[in-house]
Amino acid sequence: MRVIDTTEGIFQIYDSGDFDIDRWKKYMDSCVPGAKDLCLNDMQEGIDAGFPWETSYLPVLDAVIKDKTKFDQVIKSFNLITENLEEKIIERFGKSVDADVILYLGLCNGAGWVTPVNGKTTVLLGIEKILELNWQDINHMTGLIIHELGHAYQDQYGILKREFDNNPDKFLWQLFTEGIAMVFEQEIAGSPEYFHQYDEEWKKWCDKNIDLIRKSFSDDLECMTNENQRYFGDWVRFEGYGDTGYYLGARFVRFLLGSDTFNNIICYDINDVKTGFERFKK
Questions:
Q1: Are 178 and 94 in a shared domain?
Q2: Which of 80, 108, 136, 244 is the most exposed, having the fewest neighbouring CB atoms within 10 Å of its CB?
Q3: pLDDT digits 0-9 by tens, 9-33
């Protein structure tokens, strides 16, 4: 596992005082070659889904250098968490994760993303979204980094990416893979009740309403789209609560672990997931 901090080059992007997309492109080409087009295409998908550049992306990027204390805290947390992290993963799972973990600027649709960059499994961590979410502390950053490494672990030792021609399979697969990453995160943290996203009140509500979340997700599957889904992302809400899909996914995978091993589950195909979800719904 290789850990890379590119934040020294960020301030040159703001020489005029505001975010400069042309300077950002140069920074991206130099510090994470191959990631620029991935990020621009991902942003365009968000724009096409109804989140305008001028109001949804640019303000988040402009805010990065406004609070130097928070900016520095992200870097400090990143360095503390990644120190000896590979050893902790090997201790729990018996295997390492062959991935580059990169702290950088430019992943506006989320705080973390696992994606191949020039053929190398890469965990991209967007400092602008981390700051917007106020995730710069040790707890949130720990959860974020390990969660993304959970995706990388599934990609390396199981199957993470699958292509579907229908939305029900697509969103059920998303629930499953986010659940895998959540459980990976919980195992490293040492507690099946650990959720880094929100506070104890959020978890208490989810625990109390697990049946509602599960039934609603199941009922929504047939008509779910990127535009109307209510479960994944800090910008959407289910009954007033964000990221309930991560909670449900973790409970789903914990349910599967009652009859199979983690390393077997990460190799499931969509039919295995469908069968498991039918049992989970009962």
A1: no
A2: 80
A3: 999 999 988 899 999 999 998 988 8
